[in-house]
Amino acid sequence: MKTKKGEVTRNHIIQAAEQLFMEKSVSKVTISEIVQRAGVAKGTFYLYFESKDELVWNFMDHKFGHADKWMKEILLKGYSDEDICEIVKYIVSFVKKNITVLKMMHNVRFHSFLGIKRMEEKYMKRWVKPFSLWLEKGRLEGILKINDSEFMAHYLIITMHELFDRVIMNELPLSIDEVGDELKILILKLLK
């Protein structure tokens, strides 16, 4: 059973790890450094996490869990131009709100530590399913002009992910808002 104090300690360990991840590559951060920064004993760390690997996954869930909740609610969204633009607006807002963490994740090589395949399995697939169901509902109702809802869900999520990654890493001469504006136009053309 989780206690309030236990939850505070767990979050404190995650915050200490985040501070260290801001300073250096995730693979170079040690459990000893994390517990020292958190001010807890090493045994306390293992009460909450089996390994650094598990801590990193928990860190990501802690930071991005609200996106999961939002994706599960996407089936409640409509299909008007305004509804579709609202979805893109949420994604833009999510990226802007989490820009520091997203940059940090790229800079400290989360992908190489956790493995791209594992990250895609955990997050991309989890987000594609509800998005695909939402698209399929719109297709079946005759509102969306698409052939394959699952393909389109993968295409849109991967496209958005790659574009925002490039902006975050300063590889595109566009702002997050500019990418969002262009995505609204593109997605409306693709779906309608």
UniProtKB/TrEMBL annotation:
<dbReference type="InterPro" id="IPR001647">
    <property type="entry name" value="HTH_TetR"/>
</dbReference>
<dbReference type="Pfam" id="PF00440">
    <property type="entry name" value="TetR_N"/>
</dbReference>
<dbReference type="InterPro" id="IPR050624">
    <property type="entry name" value="HTH-type_Tx_Regulator"/>
</dbReference>
<dbReference type="InterPro" id="IPR023772">
    <property type="entry name" value="DNA-bd_HTH_TetR-type_CS"/>
</dbReference>
<keyword id="KW-0238">DNA-binding</keyword>
<feature type="domain" description="HTH tetR-type">
    <location>
        <begin position="7"/>
        <end position="67"/>
    </location>
</feature>
<feature type="DNA-binding region" description="H-T-H motif">
    <location>
        <begin position="30"/>
        <end position="49"/>
    </location>
</feature>
<dbReference type="GO" id="GO:0003677">
    <property type="term" value="F:DNA binding"/>
</dbReference>
<dbReference type="InterPro" id="IPR009057">
    <property type="entry name" value="Homeodomain-like_sf"/>
</dbReference>
<protein>
    <submittedName>
        <fullName>Transcriptional regulator, TetR family</fullName>
    </submittedName>
</protein>
